[in-house]
Amino acid sequence: MSLAQSKVFYFGYKLDAATENKYKDEIKVLKKEIDELNIVKFPDHKVTLAEINCRIGERLLALQDFGLAKKFIEKTKKELPTYADSLESLYTGILFLKEKKYEEALEFIINAQMNFIRMKDRTGIGFASFNLALCHLGLEQYDLALDNLFISNRSLSTKRKTNILVAIKINLGNCYYKLNLPSEAENVYVEAIQLAKKIENTEQSQAFLFFNLGLVQKQRENFEKSKKSFSTARDIFYKLDHLKGISAVDTQLKNLEN
Length: 258
Description:
This protein is mostly helical. It has helices at about 5-15, 25-40, 45-60, 65-75, 80-100, 100-120, 120-140, 140-155, 165-180, 180-195, 205-220, 225-240, 245-255.
Protein backbone atom coordinates (compact mmCIF):
# COMPACT_ATOMS: atom_id res chain seq x y z
CA MET A 1 0.00 0.00 0.00
CA SER A 2 1.43 3.39 -0.99
CA LEU A 3 1.65 6.31 1.42
CA ALA A 4 -1.20 8.04 -0.42
CA GLN A 5 -3.40 4.92 -0.22
CA SER A 6 -2.65 4.49 3.48
CA LYS A 7 -3.65 8.11 4.16
CA VAL A 8 -6.97 7.63 2.34
CA PHE A 9 -7.57 4.36 4.22
CA TYR A 10 -6.76 6.01 7.57
CA PHE A 11 -9.15 8.92 7.04
CA GLY A 12 -11.85 6.57 5.75
CA TYR A 13 -11.54 4.51 8.92
CA LYS A 14 -11.70 7.61 11.12
CA LEU A 15 -14.90 8.72 9.36
CA ASP A 16 -16.55 5.32 9.72
CA ALA A 17 -15.62 5.25 13.41
CA ALA A 18 -17.25 8.64 14.08
CA THR A 19 -20.62 8.24 15.77
CA GLU A 20 -23.56 10.12 14.30
CA ASN A 21 -23.99 12.33 17.35
CA LYS A 22 -20.31 13.34 17.58
CA TYR A 23 -19.39 13.63 13.91
CA LYS A 24 -18.85 17.41 14.00
CA ASP A 25 -16.14 17.01 16.65
CA GLU A 26 -14.54 14.27 14.55
CA ILE A 27 -14.66 16.45 11.41
CA LYS A 28 -12.83 19.25 13.28
CA VAL A 29 -10.05 16.84 14.24
CA LEU A 30 -9.85 15.49 10.69
CA LYS A 31 -9.74 19.01 9.23
CA LYS A 32 -6.73 19.83 11.40
CA GLU A 33 -4.97 16.64 10.28
CA ILE A 34 -5.77 17.41 6.63
CA ASP A 35 -4.25 20.90 7.02
CA GLU A 36 -1.09 19.24 8.37
CA LEU A 37 -0.97 16.98 5.29
CA ASN A 38 -0.89 20.13 3.15
CA ILE A 39 2.37 21.11 4.85
CA VAL A 40 4.07 17.70 4.51
CA LYS A 41 4.22 17.07 0.76
CA PHE A 42 4.28 13.48 -0.52
CA PRO A 43 3.66 11.87 -3.96
CA ASP A 44 0.14 12.55 -5.25
CA HIS A 45 -0.66 14.52 -2.10
CA LYS A 46 -3.09 16.84 -3.95
CA VAL A 47 -5.12 13.95 -5.35
CA THR A 48 -5.02 12.21 -1.96
CA LEU A 49 -6.26 15.34 -0.19
CA ALA A 50 -9.01 15.67 -2.77
CA GLU A 51 -10.10 12.07 -2.21
CA ILE A 52 -10.09 12.57 1.57
CA ASN A 53 -12.24 15.69 1.18
CA CYS A 54 -14.60 13.73 -1.08
CA ARG A 55 -14.85 10.96 1.51
CA ILE A 56 -15.74 13.52 4.16
CA GLY A 57 -18.29 15.12 1.82
CA GLU A 58 -19.77 11.69 1.12
CA ARG A 59 -20.05 10.96 4.83
CA LEU A 60 -21.67 14.34 5.53
CA LEU A 61 -24.24 13.72 2.77
CA ALA A 62 -25.18 10.48 4.52
CA LEU A 63 -25.60 12.46 7.74
CA GLN A 64 -27.69 15.02 5.79
CA ASP A 65 -25.40 17.90 6.75
CA PHE A 66 -25.68 19.36 3.24
CA GLY A 67 -24.07 22.75 3.89
CA LEU A 68 -20.87 21.31 5.34
CA ALA A 69 -20.81 18.53 2.74
CA LYS A 70 -20.84 21.06 -0.09
CA LYS A 71 -17.82 22.89 1.37
CA PHE A 72 -15.72 19.73 1.33
CA ILE A 73 -16.94 18.65 -2.12
CA GLU A 74 -16.05 22.03 -3.67
CA LYS A 75 -12.41 21.59 -2.59
CA THR A 76 -12.03 18.56 -4.85
CA LYS A 77 -13.25 19.76 -8.25
CA LYS A 78 -9.82 20.40 -9.78
CA GLU A 79 -8.12 17.11 -8.87
CA LEU A 80 -11.15 14.76 -8.90
CA PRO A 81 -13.83 16.37 -11.09
CA THR A 82 -15.81 13.15 -11.75
CA TYR A 83 -15.92 12.27 -8.05
CA ALA A 84 -16.93 15.82 -7.10
CA ASP A 85 -19.60 15.95 -9.83
CA SER A 86 -21.01 12.61 -8.65
CA LEU A 87 -21.31 13.86 -5.08
CA GLU A 88 -22.89 17.12 -6.26
CA SER A 89 -25.40 15.12 -8.32
CA LEU A 90 -26.22 12.97 -5.28
CA TYR A 91 -26.49 16.13 -3.14
CA THR A 92 -28.95 17.72 -5.61
CA GLY A 93 -30.99 14.54 -5.85
CA ILE A 94 -31.31 14.24 -2.08
CA LEU A 95 -32.58 17.83 -1.88
CA PHE A 96 -35.30 16.99 -4.45
CA LEU A 97 -36.06 13.82 -2.50
CA LYS A 98 -36.55 15.81 0.71
CA GLU A 99 -39.08 17.97 -1.18
CA LYS A 100 -40.83 14.76 -2.41
CA LYS A 101 -40.00 15.63 -6.02
CA TYR A 102 -39.22 12.01 -6.74
CA GLU A 103 -38.93 12.12 -10.54
CA GLU A 104 -36.46 15.00 -10.42
CA ALA A 105 -34.52 13.28 -7.65
CA LEU A 106 -34.26 10.05 -9.66
CA GLU A 107 -32.51 11.77 -12.56
CA PHE A 108 -29.71 13.16 -10.39
CA ILE A 109 -29.30 10.14 -8.11
CA ILE A 110 -29.19 7.65 -11.00
CA ASN A 111 -26.44 9.78 -12.59
CA ALA A 112 -24.49 9.67 -9.32
CA GLN A 113 -25.03 5.92 -8.94
CA MET A 114 -23.76 5.21 -12.48
CA ASN A 115 -20.63 7.30 -11.85
CA PHE A 116 -19.94 5.55 -8.55
CA ILE A 117 -20.32 2.17 -10.28
CA ARG A 118 -17.80 3.22 -12.95
CA MET A 119 -15.41 4.37 -10.19
CA LYS A 120 -16.04 1.14 -8.22
CA ASP A 121 -16.79 3.26 -5.15
CA ARG A 122 -18.72 0.91 -2.86
CA THR A 123 -19.65 3.61 -0.35
CA GLY A 124 -20.93 5.93 -3.08
CA ILE A 125 -22.89 3.07 -4.67
CA GLY A 126 -24.40 2.23 -1.29
CA PHE A 127 -25.57 5.74 -0.45
CA ALA A 128 -26.83 6.46 -3.97
CA SER A 129 -28.74 3.16 -4.08
CA PHE A 130 -30.30 3.84 -0.68
CA ASN A 131 -31.59 7.22 -1.80
CA LEU A 132 -32.81 5.72 -5.09
CA ALA A 133 -34.78 3.22 -3.02
CA LEU A 134 -36.40 6.08 -1.09
CA CYS A 135 -37.43 7.67 -4.41
CA HIS A 136 -39.00 4.41 -5.59
CA LEU A 137 -40.78 4.02 -2.25
CA GLY A 138 -42.22 7.50 -2.68
CA LEU A 139 -43.42 6.51 -6.16
CA GLU A 140 -44.83 3.22 -4.77
CA GLN A 141 -42.44 1.23 -6.98
CA TYR A 142 -41.72 -1.32 -4.29
CA ASP A 143 -39.90 -3.94 -6.40
CA LEU A 144 -37.44 -1.30 -7.65
CA ALA A 145 -37.05 -0.02 -4.09
CA LEU A 146 -36.20 -3.54 -2.90
CA ASP A 147 -33.59 -3.98 -5.65
CA ASN A 148 -31.80 -0.79 -4.63
CA LEU A 149 -32.01 -1.58 -0.92
CA PHE A 150 -30.34 -4.94 -1.56
CA ILE A 151 -27.57 -3.18 -3.52
CA SER A 152 -27.18 -0.62 -0.73
CA ASN A 153 -27.04 -3.31 1.94
CA ARG A 154 -24.35 -5.27 0.06
CA SER A 155 -22.30 -2.16 -0.62
CA LEU A 156 -22.38 -0.87 2.96
CA SER A 157 -22.37 -4.18 4.85
CA THR A 158 -18.67 -3.86 5.71
CA LYS A 159 -19.29 -0.54 7.47
CA ARG A 160 -19.37 -0.29 11.24
CA LYS A 161 -22.83 -0.49 12.79
CA THR A 162 -24.39 2.84 11.84
CA ASN A 163 -27.81 4.38 11.44
CA ILE A 164 -27.70 3.88 7.66
CA LEU A 165 -27.75 0.09 8.12
CA VAL A 166 -30.75 0.42 10.44
CA ALA A 167 -32.45 2.68 7.89
CA ILE A 168 -31.87 0.12 5.13
CA LYS A 169 -33.54 -2.60 7.18
CA ILE A 170 -36.44 -0.32 8.17
CA ASN A 171 -37.16 0.40 4.52
CA LEU A 172 -36.75 -3.25 3.53
CA GLY A 173 -39.42 -4.05 6.09
CA ASN A 174 -41.63 -1.26 4.77
CA CYS A 175 -41.32 -2.64 1.22
CA TYR A 176 -42.22 -6.15 2.32
CA TYR A 177 -45.19 -4.79 4.25
CA LYS A 178 -46.43 -2.86 1.20
CA LEU A 179 -45.96 -5.97 -0.97
CA ASN A 180 -48.11 -7.94 1.48
CA LEU A 181 -45.20 -10.11 2.65
CA PRO A 182 -45.70 -9.82 6.43
CA SER A 183 -43.45 -12.73 7.40
CA GLU A 184 -40.46 -11.21 5.59
CA ALA A 185 -41.31 -7.77 7.00
CA GLU A 186 -41.44 -9.11 10.56
CA ASN A 187 -38.05 -10.82 10.23
CA VAL A 188 -36.39 -7.67 8.90
CA TYR A 189 -37.93 -5.42 11.57
CA VAL A 190 -36.67 -7.78 14.30
CA GLU A 191 -33.17 -7.69 12.77
CA ALA A 192 -33.33 -3.88 12.62
CA ILE A 193 -34.37 -3.64 16.27
CA GLN A 194 -31.47 -5.87 17.34
CA LEU A 195 -29.04 -3.72 15.34
CA ALA A 196 -30.50 -0.41 16.57
CA LYS A 197 -30.09 -1.47 20.20
CA LYS A 198 -26.32 -1.63 19.66
CA ILE A 199 -26.13 1.96 18.38
CA GLU A 200 -26.31 5.18 20.38
CA ASN A 201 -29.23 7.60 20.00
CA THR A 202 -31.53 5.29 18.06
CA GLU A 203 -34.45 5.36 20.51
CA GLN A 204 -36.81 7.07 18.06
CA SER A 205 -35.93 4.57 15.33
CA GLN A 206 -36.54 1.75 17.80
CA ALA A 207 -39.95 3.18 18.71
CA PHE A 208 -41.05 3.31 15.07
CA LEU A 209 -39.62 -0.15 14.47
CA PHE A 210 -41.66 -1.63 17.32
CA PHE A 211 -44.71 0.23 15.99
CA ASN A 212 -44.17 -1.19 12.49
CA LEU A 213 -43.53 -4.62 13.97
CA GLY A 214 -46.85 -4.37 15.79
CA LEU A 215 -48.62 -3.55 12.51
CA VAL A 216 -47.11 -6.58 10.78
CA GLN A 217 -47.93 -8.90 13.68
CA LYS A 218 -51.47 -7.56 13.66
CA GLN A 219 -51.67 -8.28 9.92
CA ARG A 220 -50.55 -11.85 10.67
CA GLU A 221 -53.19 -12.06 13.43
CA ASN A 222 -50.55 -12.53 16.14
CA PHE A 223 -52.50 -10.21 18.40
CA GLU A 224 -50.64 -10.86 21.67
CA LYS A 225 -47.28 -10.23 20.03
CA SER A 226 -48.73 -7.16 18.33
CA LYS A 227 -49.97 -5.76 21.63
CA LYS A 228 -46.57 -6.32 23.23
CA SER A 229 -44.76 -4.54 20.35
CA PHE A 230 -47.16 -1.58 20.44
CA SER A 231 -46.73 -1.32 24.22
CA THR A 232 -42.94 -1.28 23.86
CA ALA A 233 -43.23 1.43 21.20
CA ARG A 234 -45.48 3.48 23.48
CA ASP A 235 -43.01 3.23 26.38
CA ILE A 236 -40.21 4.59 24.19
CA PHE A 237 -42.42 7.33 22.73
CA TYR A 238 -43.33 8.40 26.28
CA LYS A 239 -39.64 8.68 27.20
CA LEU A 240 -39.09 10.82 24.11
CA ASP A 241 -42.26 12.86 24.74
CA HIS A 242 -43.26 12.05 21.14
CA LEU A 243 -46.96 12.97 21.20
CA LYS A 244 -47.80 11.86 17.65
CA GLY A 245 -46.17 8.50 18.27
CA ILE A 246 -48.07 8.05 21.53
CA SER A 247 -51.36 8.90 19.83
CA ALA A 248 -50.71 6.48 16.94
CA VAL A 249 -49.87 3.63 19.32
CA ASP A 250 -52.90 4.29 21.54
CA THR A 251 -55.16 4.12 18.47
CA GLN A 252 -53.71 0.73 17.52
CA LEU A 253 -54.02 -0.63 21.05
CA LYS A 254 -57.67 0.46 21.24
CA ASN A 255 -58.35 -1.28 17.92
CA LEU A 256 -56.85 -4.48 19.30
CA GLU A 257 -59.12 -4.31 22.35
CA ASN A 258 -62.28 -4.02 20.22
